[in-house]
Design goal:
The complex is a heterodimer of chains A (374) and B (256).
Chain A lengths: L21 H9 L4 H27 L9 H5 L6 H6 L1 H6 L1 H5 L5 H18 L6 H21 L15 H27 L4 H15 L3 H10 L1 H4 L8 H27 L2 H9 L4 H31 L9 E2 H10 L7 H35 L1
Chain B lengths: L1 H9 L3 E12 L2 E12 L3 E5 L6 H8 L7 E6 L2 E2 L4 H10 E4 L11 H11 L5 H14 L15 H13 L5 E5 L7 H16 L3 E5 L3 H7 L2 E6 L2 E6 L1 H6 L4 H11 L2
Parallel strand pairs in B: 3-8, 3-9, 6-7, 7-8
Antiparallel strand pairs in B: 1-2, 1-4, 4-5, 9-10
Classes of the chains: A mainly alpha (374), B alpha/beta (256).
The structure holds adenosine-5'-triphosphate (ATP) and magnesium ion (MG).
The site of adenosine-5'-triphosphate has 11 residues of chain B, from strand 2 and helix 2.
Chain lengths: 374, 256
């Protein structure tokens, strides 16, 4: 019988043909794969060649960094005027109050250091006691921030929040909007799926109302109408009004992002937890939300990024966020005409933080995914 | 109330008694006049064609489905809208699902200890201890720190059994526990269930595994069109079925 069986022999592995691997092959297939592909590639190269070198010359090679007034820039118009950004840096970061009271500048600086000191370790995988860092960031830090930046107690001079500005204000509005809107949004998303008609319709009306209204309108309403709802003695400053408006608006978007996650959870999950005798809140907290939030991280972060950028709309109620203060500076007598530098600086700062959030959410998503599988 | 007392006094060994149970999905009459009483330690297998209401019936027992007429009394407590009663009964009645429904974001051990800690208010230590004991019984103690997604289907279903047992239920419901499994894994789950049966647990099992039914069941119930067509001990059920409907069903599933 043995003579009838075929002996299996493994063929040796060979390398793929050289014209299908390596960068040459990649260039050939991806950049010059067809005639239209080749034309587009050439056009893009031409445009890069046309615009990038002059831009680099303007932004770096010929740029002005020195000096402390516009005379340097006025003499050398061929380059960007970063002197302007340098001189107005305090204002761009902290707004008018702190820029005009340099002896108080340590306050926002410490607040920034505290903020990033808590945030950055939170984003690093190996940090121990993350839970406590997060709790500190969400509870102790806001109080600390209020004490030190707002002042008015312990002999720290009161800084009028409507005089805050720049990146400080942008951060404050975005941070408050994000941390208040997340729990509110979660509750609204749960409410929208509730079996109780009153809760359900309230949530739907709330969400659809705020989603259907532009943030600008809400900010106007918050600044004009909010005082009407409170007794005449109660005064909110502009920043608090903006915070309320932003939170109401943002919670509707967060709710929809969370709802997307809730919908993706298999019915079997709640059935299994019900069968174990868990009540609604136990199911929600231990089983449903952890899974739903994980799924909705990308869309939640998207709403955060949108909010971070949207904070610049507060300029219409007279607050000087980063963008507005940059614009104002470039229109001041001292620096009139340097708008491009102002907008470019604001744009880059916004981009850095938005891109950072986006990168972090991608990492988080991957990490939570592998946690489960491997 | 009187009904409740009457039932419990009627027979001390009855743990579940269902009478005149009717259930509709919209206009669709899914369960029709079901009467069923289950004794302590009794093992009941329910079979029947697809759509006959088997799942609906056992899901009514822990109120995953709400019935409209009739009464269900579990361990002396009547199931009604009272949330307290519902949760009381749910923690006495364990359930194993066709698709396992393990919690994917929790480890095997956490899957088993969550409800004992939060529903039964056990200490974490005690819950861990019992979970490990039960994971050992279903023969997967070494997987305790893994996530469900890392286990085979058979292992996942055994975890699901352990998870339900961690609540120390008095009754276990199984809804087609092996029908989502690859053939080579069915055996390991059935063996676990046989051991559980031997330990004296009251069990109601919806399954098409007739070998299991023959070996374990005290009573086999055949359902069709939302009704109980017949119920008998395995011997009679397989060899002398009473109704032609049962005969037809048996000939269909025993053919292959
Ligand atoms: N949520 C629901 N809404 C409407 N109809 C339903 C619902 N659940 C089940 N049904 C219907 O009720 C009937 C009984 O369903 P059930 O799931 O109890 O059957 P089954 O005997 O378990 O069948 P299978 O063997 O396929 O699991 C079926 O006709 C089904 O279509
Ligand atoms: Mg079924």
């Amino acid at each position: 019988m043995a003579s009838n069986t075929i002996k299996f022999e493994k063929l040796p592995d060979r390398l793929p043909p050289s014209n299908t691997v390596g960068w040459m092959a990649w260039v050939k297939t991806n950049l010059f794969g067809s005639i239209s592909n080749t034309l587009i590639t050439l056009l893009v190269f031409y445009l890069i060649f046309l615009y990038i070198p002059p831009f680099i010359e303007w932004a770096f090679i010929n740029a002005n960094f020195s000096g402390s007034d516009r005379s340097v820039c006025d003499e050398n118009k061929a380059g960007a005027c970063w002197t302007f950004v340098k001189v107005r840096f305090d204002q761009l970061l902290f707004g008018l109050y702190f820029a005009t009271n340099p002896d108080q500048m340590w306050r926002p600086i410490i607040a920034f250091i505290g903020f990033f000191g808590l945030l950055i370790p939170l984003m690093i995988d190996k940090t121990p006691h993350k839970k406590w860092l997060l709790i500190t960031l969400l509870t102790i830090f806001p109080v600390f921030f209020l004490l030190i930046v707002r002042g008015g107690v312990f002999g720290i001079p009161d800084s009028d929040p409507s005089q805050w500005g720049g990146l400080l204000l942008t951060f404050t509005l975005a941070f408050v909007g994000i941390i208040l809107a997340l729990p509110l949004g979660i509750l609204l998303a749960l409410g929208r799926r509730s079996k109780m008609p009153v809760v359900k319709s309230f949530s739907i009306i709330y969400i659809e109302f705020w989603r259907g209204t532009p943030l600008i309108t809400i900010l106007f309403m918050a600044s004009v109408m909010l005082p009407l709802f409170f007794p005449s003695g109660v005064e909110f400053d502009k920043v608090v009004r903006a915070m309320i408006g932003i939170t109401l608006f943002q919670s509707a978007y967060t709710a929809e992002a969370v709802r997307g996650g809730l919908q993706a959870i298999d019915k079997g999950q709640s059935e299994a937890s019900m069968a174990l005798g868990m009540g609604y809140w136990q199911q929600t907290i231990f089983i449903i939300l952890p899974q739903a939030l994980k799924i909705s991280i990308p869309s939640i972060v998207n709403t955060f990024i949108a909010l971070f950028k949207d904070t610049s709309l507060v300029s219409i109620i007279g607050l000087l966020d980063l963008l507005k203060i940059a614009q104002n500076s470039s229109r001041s007598l001292d620096w009139n005409g340097y708008d491009i530098e102002a907008y470019m600086f604001a744009g880059i700062v916004f981009w850095i933080f938005c891109f950072g959030m986006s990168m972090y959410s991608q990492r988080l998503e991957k990490k939570l995914d592998t946690d489960r599988r491997e | 109330m009187t009904n409740n007392q009457a039932e419990t006094m009627n027979d001390d060994s009855t743990i579940i008694s269902i009478s005149k149970l009717n259930k509709w999905y919209g206009n669709f009459h899914a369960l029709k006049d079901i009467d069923l009483s289950v004794n302590k330690t009794e093992k009941i297998v329910i079979c029947g064609p697809s759509g006959s209401g088997k799942s609906t019936l056992i899901r009514c027992i822990n109120r995953l489905e709400v019935h409209q007429e009739g009464s269900i009394i579990v361990d002396g407590v009547e199931l009604n809208d009272d949330v307290k009663h519902i949760n009381e009964i749910r923690s006495e009645v364990g359930m194993v699902f066709q698709h396992f429904n393990l919690f994917p974001h929790l480890t095997v051990l956490e899957n088993c200890t969550l409800a004992p800690i939060w529903v039964r208010k056990k200490s974490r230590n005690e819950a861990n201890h019992m979970a490990m004991e039960l994971l050992e019984k279903v023969r997967i103690p070494d997987q305790a720190d893994k996530y469900p997604g890392q286990l085979s289907g058979g292992q996942q279903q055994r975890v699901a059994i352990a998870r339900a047992l961690c609540m120390q239920p008095r009754v276990m419901l199984f809804d087609e526990p092996t029908s989502a499994l690859d053939p080579e894994m069915i055996k390991e789950v059935l063996e676990t269930m046989i051991e559980l049966a031997e330990s004296g647990m009251t069990m109601i099992v919806v399954t098409h595994e007739m070998g299991f039914a023959n070996k374990v069941a005290d009573r086999i119930i055949f359902m069709d069109e939302g009704q109980i067509v017949e119920q008998n001990d395995p011997e009679t059920f397989f060899n002398n079925p009473e109704s032609d409907r049962t005969k037809l069903f048996l000939s269909q599933i025993l053919d292959h």
